[in-house]
Amino acid sequence: MDIIFMLVFAVILASVFLHFVPIGLWISALAADVHVGIFTLVGMRMRRVPPSKIVMPLIKANKAGLNVNVNQLEAHYLAGGNVDKVVDALIASQRAEITLPFERAAAIDLAGRDVLEAVQMSVNPKVIETPLVSAVAKNGIELIIKARVTVRANIDRLVGGAGEPTIIARVGEGIVTTVGSAEKHTDVLENPDEISRTVLGKGLDAGTAFEILSIDIADVDVGRNIGAQLQTDQAEADKRIAQAKAEERRAMAVAQEQEMKAYTQEMEAKVVEAQAEVPHAMATALREGKMGVMDYINMMNVQSDTEMRKSISRTGVKKAAHNA
User: Fold this and answer.
1) DSSP line for 95-147
2) Of 65, 77, 70, 68, nearest to 26 (Cα)?
3) Element (H, E) at 17
4) What is the pLDDT of residue 102?
5) Low-confidence residues of the chain, pLDDT below 50?
6) What is the pLDDT at residue 163?
7) How far is the C-alpha of 123 from the C-alpha of 144, rounded, in Å?
8) Which of 26, 134, 162, 217 lies at a CB distance of 3.0 to 4.6 Å from 192, suitable for a disulfide?
9) Is 81 helix (H, G, I), strand (E, B) or coil?
10) Which among 121, 113, 51 is positioned nearest to 86, based on CA atoms?
11) CA 157/CA 281 separation, integer angstroms
12) DSSP string, 183-226
């Protein structure tokens, strides 16, 4: 029973020892002629750094002839970086004869950029295809353009430099400006390479993480007649304004007509009221002797004569209208 207990205890002790002292990894480093102390590996365990994450990239770097050490790799790992990718990027840059110190590669990696992809893009340029860009020439014709931008990563500007969205936005702005300065859309269709030369000459890669090598127009389509559409919209707007003003004038005329009718009705009421007072006034004048009977008879004759003349004139007007 004691022997079994001792064996179990020995196995547990050996497991704990091999966990904190990675003998196999230390032997692999020695076999690759990479000098890493056993206590250094134990210290990595104590600092919660997986020794394989440091030793294996160190072996790879040593075999590639890179001058990196354990402290650099461990510090980069503790900072949250990808040690293996940084070492791969350093190897790729060395093979491509691109100057890339470890500190810059680590900074690029910690900045959130793919340092290995950046090195590969420096060797093999990348083609960025812009979305469809709508631009309008001076004659009002819309052109829909798609461009392909060939860029190469600029290692020196990867940290703090703008990315692909900025390149796409600047190229789109350059296309709109170039087409907008053309007198006719046919000028652009005849020389689409003029867009490439004009946009490329604007230095659009300033402040970005890339260097623009070329801008090629992939497709140009004729769109709508924006100028004619704007004129139609303006004419429709003018028409609505004129209709609104005409409606306003009509409403004012109706209001004035209603006002005149009310005024006329008021005057007619006053006339009727005044005519109603005439008999009363005449009766009073007759009683008081201010007016004689002959005067009354003469006045009635004058009124009858006046009514007759009005009747004759209305009859003549009707005949003349009928004959016409």
Assistant:
1) HTT----HHHHHHHHHTT--HHHHHHHHHS-EEEEPPPEEEE-TTSEEEEEEE
2) 70
3) helix 2-20
4) 87
5) none
6) 81
7) 32
8) 217
9) coil
10) 113
11) 112
12) SSHHHHHH-THHHHHHHHTT-TTTTBSEEEEEEEEEEEEEEEEH
DSSP E strands in 34-164: the ranges are 126-129, 133-136, 141-153
Torsion of CA 105, 50, 60, 109, to 10 degrees: -10
| Phi and psi torsions of 22, nearest 5° | -70, 85
**Chain mean position to CA 92:** 39
Are residues 210 and 151 in contact, defined by beta-carbon separation less than 8 angstroms? yes
Write the single-letter amino acid at 244. A
Largest CA distance in the chain: 168
Contact (Cβ atoms closer than 8 angstroms) between residue 159 and residue 138: no
Token pair of 257, please? 């007509």
Q: Which two tokens stand for residue 127?
A: 């083609």
Q: Are 147 and 217 in contact (CB under 8 A)?
A: yes
pLDDT for the residue numbered 211: 84
Residue 37 corresponds to which tokens in the numbers above?
Answer: 């102390």
**Residue 105: CB atoms within 10 Å:** 26
Read off the tokens for 212: 């623009």
Residue 123 CB partners (closer than 8 Å, separation 6+)? 92, 96, 98
- pTM, two decimals, is 0.56
pLDDT at 316: 63
Contacts of 156-159 spanning 24+ positions with Cβ under 8 A = 157/207, 157/208, 157/209, 157/210, 158/108, 158/111, 158/113, 158/115, 158/118, 158/209, 159/104, 159/107, 159/108, 159/111, 159/113
23-48 burial, b at 16+ Cβ within 10 Å, e below that, comes to eebbebbeebebebeeebbeebeeee
Q: Check if the beta carbon of residue 65 is closer than 8 Å to that of residue 35.
A: no
- Contact yes or no for 146/219 (Cβ under 8 A): yes
